[in-house]
Every structure is written in C-alpha cells, then in structure tokens.
Here is the input.
Amino acid sequence: MPIGVELWLFAVALGTSMLGGVLGMASGIFIVPVLTMFGRIDIHTAVGASLVSVIACSCGSAAPFLKERLTNIRLAILLETATTSGALCGVFLAGLVPTQYLYLLFVLILLLSAQQMLVRRKDPDGSSSVQRLPLGMTLMYGAGMISALLGIGSGVLKIPAMDTALRLPIKVSSATSNFMIGVTATASAAAYFARGEIVTSVAAPIALGSVVGAVLGARILINVPAQRLRLMFIGILVLLAAQMLLAAFGINLFGPKS
Amino acid sequence: MKAAALSGQLETLLGRLLQYGTLAASGIIAVGLVLGLASSPLGMSVATAGIALFILLPALRVAVMLIFFLRARDYRYGAIAALVLLIISISFFVGMRWNAPAQ
Here is the structure.
C-alpha cells in the first residue's frame, strides 16, 4: 500500500478522534462513512478497521473513569452478555445483508447521532437505581448487533438504553457505556480477525490515529467552544448521511469513479 | 464494607490493564508501520500483532474480572463473566470455521 494512503488513513482517524474526544462522542461513526465514501474502501474492510479503532478508544479512555469510580463494573459485565450475543448475531448477518442495506442502516444511525447531539441529555428524575433491566438488555442486544454490522461502538444506542430503560445518572451511563464498547467490539472483531477480514494496512493506521487523536483531543481542543464544535459535528453527520443515502442508490459525489 | 473495598481494587486493576495494554498495542502498531515505511517485510506482521493485542485486550479484561469474582467467592458474577468470555470465544471459532464471503 502506498505511503500516501496510510498517511491519509492515519489523518482521518486522528482528526475524527480529536473531534469526538472533545464532545465525548465516539469517532467510530465517522470512520466507515469516510473510508467507503471518500476512500472507496470495501465496507467490510472499513467495518473491520473501524472495530479495531473502537476497541482502542474504549480501552484507552477507560482508566480515568475507573479511577473516579464512575464505571458500574457489575452492570457492565451483566449487560455485556447481551451486547456480545447481539454482536455474534451481527457477525452472522454481516455476510448476508446486502451492502445497500448496510448503507441505509448507517444513514439511520448517523441521523440518530445528529439528533442526539442536538438534544441535551438530562439526568433522569427520581431514584438512580437500575430499573427495567429486561428492556435494557433487549436494547443492548440490538446495540451489539448494530456494532458488529456497522463497525461502530454503538454508544449512540447504548446511552439512550441506559438513560431511558435503566435511568442511570449521565456520568455513570457514559462511563459504563464506554467501558462496554470495547468488549462488544471485540466479540465481532474476533470473528472478523479469525476470518482474515481485518486488513492490517487499513486497520493499523486507523487504530494508531484514533489513539493519538484521543490523547491530543483531550489536551489541545479543550479550549475550543464546545457549542461551535457541536454544530460542526452535526453538520458533518448530516452531510455523511446524505452522501451515504445517495451511495445506497449508486450515486457517489466524491472520490474517483469506480 | 468488604465488597466495596474489593471493588475498588478491581477498578484499579482493570484501569492499569487497559491503560498499559493500549500503550503496548499502539506502540507495537507504530513500530510495525515505521518498519513498513522503511519497506521491511516484517512491518505488516508486527502491525498485525499489535491489532491482535488490541482485540485481545477487552477479552483479557473480562478474564481478569472472572478471576477476581471467583476469588471473592462472587460466583454469580463469576458465571456472568465466564459467559461473556465464552461468547467471545465462540465468535472467534465461528470466524475460523467460516470462510470469508466471496468478494
């Protein structure tokens, strides 16, 4: 693979991870759209690379949350039985679902993320004990499946599951969701890796860029007004959703013609 | 309470494992990429080892939890951790058995 491509992959991961880190949002959601739309990389290769970067970000950022005792470890391992089962199901589906439907599913998730960025989260009223566990487990199963299919951390689905079904305080649900994302992604990445579907020349620069970006993002961008970044983030999400929608029907505005 | 003190220990342990694991895996990938840029044939294998370590890291985290829960005689959570580890292993073996879909 030419050096230019590796540098481009590294830069993409670095940039999205820096942005994502500041807003407390996983950057995994950007990697697959950018790689498939602009890099013309096969969606399965992009998903494999993205999963490795998702694991890297989850593991790399877990320590401070654990130190602050924000992560609910027991709840995490319990919900992980659901997310990893969902991921296993996603691995089976990944080979069967046509690329077009994967694109459409991605459009839906991108728009859901944009909507979540617009609406401020509030701490749930009343007691913060774990409630409605069966609903929470079901939503987590779905989050695991989507994670395996699209190569995202599915924080976008895990956090609402925690907020609405389990009614945990925001800081606890964010820390716990982030903690779970690594194990969820590993459950599908292990299958893709064993199948030889994780392409090192793509996944390596993406994973490294994500880790470096997360470290830099936490240090450099901390002074940039979050509101402006948030709007920029929403703009990018909507643009990517529009382009992916077009791509699902075979229209690509960017990148070389295939 | 004894359980709370034990839980604090577990958090420190997991935090260290994930932090140093991320450092090690990133370092190995970086070395692999630099070797690759220097057009060494070893580069890609080294980078692949780094990726494998990243994928292994959350599974190791669950394994540490399993051992911790068993030692604390918390068999219920020990069984839950074992189940998660089992599902990850199934995924890996499913991947080994299944051929990559035709491109």
User: Anything to note?
Assistant: The first helix of chain B runs from residue 2 to 37. Chain B touches chain A through 55 residues (CB under 8 Å). Chain B is about 85% helix and 0% strand.
